[in-house]
Every structure is written in structure tokens, then in C-alpha cells.
Task: structure prediction
Amino acid sequence: MTTLDVARTELALLVLYLNKAEARDKICRAIQYGSKYLSNGEPGTAQNVDKSTSLARKVFRLFKFVNDLHGLISPTSPGTPLPLVLLGKSKNALLSTFLFLDQFVWLSRTGIYENKERAELIGRISLYCWMGSSICTTLVEVGELGRLSASMKKLEKDLKKSDKYNNEEYRSKLKKGNERSLALIKAGMDIVVAIGLLQLAPKKVTPRVTGAFGFVTSLISCYQVFAIASITTEGQDTLNKESLTMGFPLDNNLGIVRLAYLV
Result:
């Protein structure tokens, strides 16, 4: 491949990434919380950017509650302990409720829904639901990391003296462990962000702290959406079809590409 072909392919993948509503939402989220950090709750340009971006993000989340509603009624992986199943379903229910109620907040800010007091109450309830889902996610990730660690130790014993890093199953588990660790960090930080937005500890979790934590979790989300993964045959076909519709044919010889999938 020539340098121009590589550049065209990378540009095509960037276009595919930016065409994802989830990707645009996470980029706007980074801008929102970055502005919140800069403003520290004080009036000015940064606070205006924070408020306007927050409103713009709500458009990307319209009807997004259906995703977690689908997850709520979907079957779980075989062998998953009941406590983790219940926590996972609780996370789906709470997150779906948050996204559903958040639509009323958007309606209020646009002037369609005129009961401001009720809209403010709905907004606080939705944030509590988001905080609850982040707590559930944290507990799920801790539990899954524990299960993963136990299975990796068992696999290490089975491998004995052979190099574990040459084992495909061990590398796969190690990769999953890294992904879950990152998700755990993000969920834990999101709890702090929720506390800041609800002003449950205004002296400790200031707007600047909320903005800093929110900005970091936004970058993590952007990374998760813009994950680097080995392309499967099905994924290659899907990307080729999507890219060809926009006039960006991909080279099938590419072994590794950036996929715009939400982790």
C-alpha cells in the first residue's frame, strides 16, 4: 500500500467513527466536562460552552434507553453467578430509566415541557438512576475480575512450565482483564461525577473536581468506542459495505484497523 492509500483508509475509518452517534456524544461529553473544569462553576464563556454542549448531547441520547431495555430482557452468559446477573440487570434497568427520564429534561430545556419544578425533580431522579447504574457496574466489574483472575490462575497451573503468553486463551483473558479494569476505573469515577452533579458533597466534589473526573471518563469512553481490534471476516465485510457507500473503499490486506464499536 502506498502512503496515500494508508491515509485514505485511515480517513475512511475516521469518517465511520464520527458517523456513530455514540462517538459524537462522547466527544461532546469531553468538551462539556472540560469546560466545567475550566469554569469551576463561575459564569463566563466556559460555563456557556458547558451548558450548550450538555443540551446538545441530549439529542444524541434520544430513544437510547431502548439499548439497555434490550439488555435487560436479553439472556445472560451461561455460568454467570446469580448476584452478578441481578447486578447486571439492575444496571440495565437503572441506566434505561436514566436515559428515558433525561428526555423530559431535554423537553424542559427546549421549552416544550413547561413545568420547570417537575422537570428539575425528574432530572435529579435521573441522575440518581445514573449513579445507581455506575455503582452496579462497579460491583459487576469487581466480581467479573475476580472470576477472571481465578480462571487465569487455574490456566497458569495447567500450562505449568510453558510460556503462558504464547497461549491464545491466556492472552484473550488478559485482554479481557485489562478491558474490565478500565471499565471499573471509569465506573468508579462516574460515581464521583454523579455526586458532583447532584451536589451531594459540594465542599469536596466541586465543579472543578466534577469536570476533571468527567473529562477523564469521557476520554476513556472515546477510547472504548474507538477501540483498536483485529478485524473479523464479518466485521471486514460490514466496514467495506459502510465505507463503499461513502466512497471510501477499504483494503482487505489491512490486518488491524480502528473499529467504531462501543465496548
